[in-house]
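Researcher: Go.
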Amino acid sequence: MNWLLVLAGAAVGGPLRYLTDRAVQARHDTVFPWGTFTVNVVGCLVLGLLTGAVAAGAASSSVRLLIGTGLCGALTTYSTFSYETLRLAEDGAKFYAAANVIASVIAGLGAAFVGTAVAGALWA
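Model: Structure:
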């Protein structure tokens, strides 16, 4: 039955990733992959909140499967991040490629820490 929770979360996360990526990227006239950056940082924030909620006993393992594994797993995308970074470097936009890696790691980790801290403050 756990796989149904993961499937339900992924059924929402996948289309949400696509729609968010298209909407964000359409608003920026640059080669930088703002859409992928946005979904990855938001996914890190949600996963941080969820991790903090689970640690505080405010969320169950079922919620962790639905939101963490399903929704966040489908929402975030390491493969697209990697592909877009490689594409930027191959197209000669090495600054944007490096900025994508550095900003994604810093913002993603920062979002996860903030999410965990917020959850800890809410459910401590």
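Model: The helical segments are 2-26, 34-55, 61-75, 78-90, 94-123.
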